[in-house]
Each structure stands twice: as C-alpha cells, then as structure tokens.
Write a structure and sequence with these properties.
about 35% helix, alpha+beta, globular, FAD/NAD(P)-binding domain, about 30% strand, 8-stranded mixed β-sheet
Length: about 400
C-alpha cells in the first residue's frame, strides 16, 4: 500500500516531533515515523535532563508544546559558575547582568517528549506511523519513497532524517560522516541536596573530566560527569551512598550533602560532522546532522534550531510548491552550517584544552578564563549566543 504525503519525518524524538509541530502553518502534510511511542512520565525523576535555552523554549511554546511541560518539574538557571583547575580561574555568568530572565530551563527529557507527542498527536496535518521501522529509502527525481516494515510505502516530496546519531536515513542517503570518539562517557544521576542551589548551575573542569551540577526544583540537582570510560564504570559500580559522597567531594560540597534519587546511567561521547545537511529530496536535523560534546549543554538546542530553521524555510517557500526542491533545502543548510560548526569547534576545542596535562596549556586555559571573567561585554555576548 502506498500513501502520499509532502514530508516524511523519520524519528519522532525531541527534534523530529518539534519539526512536525512547527510545520503546521506550512500547509504541508506530514508523516511522522517512529519505532516506539514515548512512555508516559511517572513521579520518578528522569535520568535524561536537558538545558533548554530561552530561544528553544520560545520555539516550543510557539508550536504549542512548552505549555504541556509541568512547570513544577522545570527549574530556571539564573546563574552559572565555572571553575578551572586553578583556584583563581573562575567564571560567573548572570542572566540579570545580560538582561535576561534566565540563562536556561532545566527540564526532563521524558516530559519534553511527552508534551511534543501530545502536540503532534492532535495536529491535523500530521499522521503518525508508530510502531513502524524503515526498511528501504528510494530516491527519485520528483519524489522519495520510504518503505516501512508493515508493507506501507510512504511517497513524499521530502524525507527528513531526525533519527539520531546512528541515523539510518543518513546511511541510506550515502552522506559521509567524520566521527571522533572521545573515549569518554557522560555519567548522569539526580540528587537531593542539603543546601539551596539558588538557581545556579555549576561546572568544574577537572583532571578527570568535566563535572556539572544543574539545578532541579525543590533542592534537587542533576549531575553530568563527562569522564574516561574507566572512571565512568567506576562511578556506575558505586552504591548510592558512595556515589553521593564521591560527587559531593568532587563538587566541593557547594550544595551540601547529596542523596541519590535517580540511579546513575552513562552515555558514550563522540564528535560527528557530516559532509552535507541536505541532498535532493532529503534533509538531516538534530543528532543525525551533528554531535557535540555536552560540556556546553547545547546539543538539543542545536537540534531545535535545526527544526526551527527548516520549518521557517518550508513555511516561507513562497510560490515554490515543491518542498523537496534542492535549492530550497540549500537555504536551510546555509543557514545552519555556521552555527553548528562554531559550536563543534568550541566544544571540541575546550574538551581538548582541558583534557591535556601540558603545563603551558594549563596556564593558557586558566589565563583565558581569567581574561573572560574580567570582560563583562564578552561574557554577555557568550550568554546571549547560548540563549538563542
């Protein structure tokens, strides 16, 4: 059975679902393909936490999803404190000083996903195919076909790969990937803390990796510790009391005594660059198009900016009736490449800079932190770029 649509989005994660919702004003019909529906969030705290920029939150509000995220389960980041590997190397970013209400919102991945799923489920222009897996991608001059495992073939003018870092769409399209494995994992866990965090996010550049504590509601924090695979396994093997003690010592007890409320989990870290974001009748968004180190907390925001830009290009296509036209898709690629490349260079450079034990690099990185700390104009520029 063949079904026609204007756009087939493969992957209904945060980025794919947000793109489907954002296409409502375009007048285009959307098929959203996803192997499994998201779980209904329970009372337990999600181990996957995201720092959502104000710009991304505004985008999610525009598509009708942010309103569906329980405000009692999100926390505003009003201040960020960063520590180098010397006591004098410290940075502090303030939303107030930058003229913003917040630097970011800390939200649970499961609740964001649930809100977006509810949004697209009610959208009249979106048809969801779930559970469904893709078996073949066939590209033709005037359309593309996606063959699903149930026997259905989707005929679309445009196929969007929103299917993650190991993208099937990207592989089928023959788009080359340059990957660099950091030989690190991000260990995540949530804690109740003994002292108020006061809306402050903390980050330490340590010899054993980058440790971050992000504020959650009601004296809770979420940890992301990007470290070697060996130490990651050590942290995962600790019981809850030992893990809390280890993190408390590593974070200098800034939020008091810690108690684990969400068990530790780990995710491998790598940098991925793609040769092209688009091909005729095909576009990539989110992790399918790029991977970055999580030390800046910008991975999901890059993906939301992809969705926002691609939706804007397709909604403002004017007299162009073919949403898969290569010239149209190139507008999206040109608009996104600079932002993505700058974030990849920045996060990769910082990771390499702080991972080195060279004395001269240690002096250079700590000097750099002190210089930035003394320049309010530079700090505010960095804040406003991250908030977009």
């Amino acid at each position: 059975m063949t079904e026609s649509c204007d756009i087939a989005i493969i992957g209904a994660g945060l980025v794919g679902a947000s793109l489907a919702a954002a296409l409502a004003p375009s007048g285009l019909s959307v098929a959203l393909v996803e192997p499994r529906a998201p779980a209904v969030p329970g009372d337990a705290w999600d181990s996957r936490i995201y720092a959502v920029s104000p710009g991304s939150a505004a985008f999610l509000a525009d598509v009708g999803a942010w309103q569906g995220v329980d405000a009692h389960r999100t926390e505003r980041v009003e201040t960020m404190r960063i520590f180098g590997d010397e006591p004098s190397a410290q940075l502090q970013f303030s939303a107030y000083e930058a003229g913003l209400r917040e630097l970011a919102f800390i939200a649970e991945g499961g609740r964001l996903q649930s809100a977006l799923w509810q949004c697209v489920s009610l959208a009249p222009h979106v048809r969801i195919f779930c559970p469904a897996k893709c078996e073949a991608l066939l590209q033709h001059t005037d359309y593309a076909e996606v063959v699903l495992d149930g026997g259905t073939t989707l005929r679309a003018k445009l196929v969007v790969g929103a299917d993650g870092a190991q993208s099937w769409v990207r592989e089928q399209a023959g788009i080359k990937v340059i990957a660099h494995d950091y030989a690190q994992s991000a260990v995540v866990a949530n804690f109740a803390c003994g002292l108020p965090h006061q809306g402050t996010a903390y980050q330490w550049f340590r010899p054993d990796g980058v440790l971050a504590l992000l504020p959650l509601p009601s004296n809770r924090v979420s940890m992301v510790w990007s470290t070697s695979e060996t130490q990651a396994q050590e942290l995962l093997a600790l019981d809850t009391v030992a893990l809390a003690q280890r993190v408390s010592v590593a974070s200098d007890g800034v939020v008091g005594a810690l108690n684990v409320i969400t068990p530790a989990a780990a995710f491998p870290l790598r940098l991925q660059r793609v040769g092209e974001f688009v091909k005729p009748r095909l576009a990539l968004v989110g992790d399918a198009a790029h991977n970055v180190h999580p030390l800046a907390g910008q991975g999901v925001n890059l993906g939301f900016r992809d969705a926002r830009e691609l939706a804007a290009v397709l909604c403002d296509r004017g007299a162009q009736s073919d949403c898969g036209d290569y010239a149209l898709l190139r507008r999206y690629e040109r608009a996104r490449k600079e932002d993505v490349l700058s974030m990849q260079l920045a996060t990769d450079g910082l990771q390499k800079l702080f991972a080195s034990n060279a004395v001269w690099l240690s002096r250079a990185r700590n000097l750099g932190m002190r210089v930035v700390a003394s320049q309010p104009f530079i700090k505010n520029l960095l804040v406003k770029h991250a908030a977009a």
